[in-house]
Amino acid sequence: MVVELGQDYSPWMFSQYLSELARYRGFRFLVIVDGSAHLVGYVPAEVFRLPGMQSEQDLTSLVFTISAAQIPALLSVPGMISESLRLDSTVADGLSYMNRHRLRSGVVTDTQSRLVGIVDREDLVVQLLLAIGG
Question: Which tens digits make up the pLDDT trace of 91-100?
Fold first, then answer.
């Protein structure tokens, strides 16, 4: 799920939607970008599955922080990650990054920190195995 800073999101609707998404295995991140699609930060889905982030009050507070574009407050949200993998990262860089942040997937940005996509650990492992075997 990608949201933009400064947008007027309905706290109730946002928190309901995020709570439902968090129930699904395919949900990976809440990604926050600025108006130019530059990455501000992201919270892995696992954080939303923790008891502390499941309360409607916590999610509502997060929505207000996003809507108010309060970047310092966003960066202090538990589990928030502000760094990303770059398009030119190596497989080793990607695996190291995911290990460091205890992630199954990582957010990928271009050289100007604009969101490009995500990559899964399994994809990187496959690439590593192909490089070793090839």
Answer: 989 999 999 9
The tally of CA atoms less than 13 A away on the side-chain side of residue 18 is 30
Start-end of H helices in the chain: 11-21, 45-48, 56-67, 71-75, 91-101, 121-133
Torsion angle of the four alpha carbons 93, 2, 37, 103, in this order, in degrees rounded to the nearest 10:
-10
Q: What is the CATH number of domain 2-133?
A: 3.10.580.10
Triad 6, 13, 104: Cα angle to 5°: 80
The domain ranges of the chain are: 2-133
pLDDT digit string (tens) for 63-91? 889 999 999 999 988 889 999 999 999 99
